[in-house]
Amino acid sequence: MKSRLRELRVSKEWTQEDLAEKLNVSRQTVNSIEVEKYDPSLPLALKIARLFKVPVEEIFDDRGQ
Amino acid sequence: MTSILYIVRMTKVSLPEALHCGKGYSFKTDLKVNAWVFVALLFAFLAQWMLPRHPAWPVSLRSAVALSPLFPCLLYVRRLWRWICSLDELQRRIQVEAVLFATTGAAFFSTGLSLLGGVGALQSTSLEHGLGFLRTLAVILFLYVLGATVLSRRHR
């Protein structure tokens, strides 16, 4: 699944560690979502969307899969 | 199964690094998660030492002593499962996959040996009567470490 997480994180000038702490997950989870190796669960995707104040479909896109 | 994973609240995350050597290592966490496996090992050694020395004991007592390592093993599985549930979702998936790999691998290995023993291919070897408790534990541990390492490297 395509992810804009890295772009959004960099726009806030957060490190992966910072974002992981805010989401209460490990840095590896943030990295794996950013490099599109791992699709987050629905609760985590919603948490990310709330944190960046954007709709979830603007962060994750499953079209073209 | 999925609903079981989702009811875990993501309020307190513990990381697998707390059990591995490195900057995040915590002896307390390590001991808390793995204590029951050491109790099981102790029971297994005691059973191995006592049973050949007391052949006159009644079968019920010998059975109880022989099966005694399994009870701490159950407690270990319970503790391990709780620890896995306290991990964040990616780490949880890695650990569950590693545990499944280890247990199914050990089951295949044990069944293979049993089938070989059935046709007499393992006669006069120490594996003639199966793996036994300690060897089974060692195989599971080896496969778990292998699986967890390979899966963790994919998500560095």
Q: Work out the strand percent of chain B.
A: under 5%
Mean pLDDT metric of chain A: 91
Report the top-level CATH class of chain A: Mainly Alpha
Task: Please bin the fraction of helical residues of chain B.
Answer: 55-70%
In total, how many beta strands of chain B? 0
Short description:
By secondary structure, chain A is mainly α. Chain A has helices at residues 5-11, 16-23, 27-34, 42-52, 56-59; strands at residues 2-3, 60-61.
Written account of the structure:
The complex is a heterodimer of chains A (65) and B (156). Chain A is mostly helical. Chain A has a single domain (2-52), classed as lambda repressor-like DNA-binding domains (434 Repressor (Amino-terminal Domain)), CATH 1.10.260.40. Chain A is built from five helices and two strands. Chain A has helices at 5-11, 16-23, 27-34, 42-52, 56-59; strands spanning 2-3, 60-61. A two-stranded antiparallel ribbon of chain A has the order 1-2. Chain B is mostly helical and 156 residues long. Chain B has two domains: 16-86; 88-156. Helices cover 69% and strands 0% of the residues of chain B. Chain B is built from six helices and no strands. Chain B has helices at 2-6, 27-50, 59-67, 70-85, 89-118, 132-154. In chain B, helix 2 packs antiparallel against helix 4 and helix 5 (89-118) packs antiparallel against helix 6 (132-154). The longest helix of chain B has 30 residues, at 89-118. Chain B is globular and about 55 Å long. The A-B interface holds A 23-26, 28-29, 31-32, 37-38, 40-41, 43-44, 47 and B 5-6, 10-13, 15, 88-91, 152, 154-156.
Fold blueprint:
The complex is a heterodimer of chains A (65) and B (156).
Chain A: E1 2-3, H1 5-11, H2 16-23, H3 27-34, H4 42-52, H5 56-59, E2 60-61
Helix pairs in contact in A: 2-3
Chain B: H1 2-6, H2 27-50, H3 59-67, H4 70-85, H5 89-118, H6 132-154
